[in-house]
Amino acid sequence: RRAGQVQEAAGEDEQWLEATAGRLRTALMGYNLQAKIAGMRLTPNAALVRFVGSDRLRVEDIEAKQSALLTTHGLRVISISPLPGEIVVGVARAKRQIVSMWDLWERRALNRNAAGLNTSFLLGLRELDGEILYLNLGGPFAGVSQHDPHTLIAGATGSGKSVLIQALILDIAATNPSALVHIHLIDPKMGVDYSAIERLPHVKGGIIIGQAAAIEMMEGLVIEMDRRYELFRQSGARDIRSFNIKAAPEARLPMKFLIHDEFAEWMLTEDYKGVVTSIVSRLGVKARAAGIHLVFAAQRPDAGVMPVQLRDNLGNRLILKVASVGTSEIALGTKGAENLLGLGHLAARLSGEAATVFAQAPFLSDEDIEDVVLAIAAQDG
Fold it and tell me: N or C: which end of the chain has fewer CB within 10 A?
């Protein structure tokens, strides 16, 4: 009986996809736009309709009609992506599908280097092709080039920002032993979202909840980066990967992640803003070779709390739904994040990707997170 229900639901989804594509095509033709459908597919969030690009159908033409498509035709366009010879338009589904972290873990591949470190981490499910989107910090993987070493995550309340950060931390810890990965977590909100995460053996020093302790820890990372460069020089190594291959197992250096949630709150304090901007600038590009990676997260990373120097050093942009076009342009580098659906719907700008990548971040319940933390702690070694 259940199999029949699933088949019936799939049939209804397919009918809705075809009907939505037809309505979108008809609406665009009604605006004297050329709308030849090249293909379509259903994602957890949307109907993706691929149109043949031409002089009579450009991205800006569809953007100009976005409001009319919603109010006149009931079509909520949430993404417009240019591809070679095509334009892909996403129309929101009335009922979205949850992407389970468990399902992605079953499908994911590992990018282990010769020293045993996995350096590619789950971000979610790509809308365009249904493949897993990875953050590649240690080299090319899954047909995508290596990404920048440092990351900005932004999203308003209800966007799924905290869930994305927790999923990223869990994937880092689930795929690496605590001897090879250390995570340092700063949270001005007293760590309330990370009570289970704090029990991971990879999280060192507990959750930092004060500015003075945060500055001390970040300054310690700069000192550690310089110490590692001296070790590389002495051993004739180029970076952490080549050093760890040469080193005895007990002498290998761990990757270090600094995850700073809600950094914008403290950046309103001028002293803290100045120190953090200086430290991040010093880490900058040099930190990658040393195996040190920064993840900064905020609800509204506006210009007042995120100086240009800081923004430029956080090259990977993982942006969930934000409140305004202005915030999208600062965080993502372009408009579009204001149209996301919330609850883990993600727009990513990553080096090596020609355009914004839309994806759905995975979901884990609080109970799932507890279970995963216990399992990781039990198996760590």
Answer: N
Tokens of 195: 């009570």
User: What are the chain's domains?
Assistant: 2-92 (3.30.980.40), 101-379 (3.40.50.300)
Percent of the chain at pLDDT exceeding 70:
97
**End-to-end Cα spacing for the chain:** 45
> Which of 277, 358, 339 lies closest to 314, judged by CA?
277
In three-state secondary structure terms, 78 is strand
> What is the C-alpha to C-alpha distance for residues 137 and 351, in angstroms, rounded to an integer?
11
Please give the pLDDT value at position 6.
Answer: 52
Q: Which residues contact 277 (CB under 8 A, 6 or more apart)?
A: 307, 309, 310
125 neighbors 132 (Cβ within 8 angstroms): yes
The pLDDT score that the predictor gives to residue 360 is 96
Contacts of 225 (CB under 8 A, 6+ apart): 283, 286, 287, 290, 292
If you write DSSP's letter for every residue of 153-209 in order, what string do you get?
Answer: EE--TTS-HHHHHHHHHHHHHHTS-TTTEEEEEE-TTTTGGGTTGGGSTTEEEEEE-
Query: Average of pLDDT values for 249-276?
Result: 93
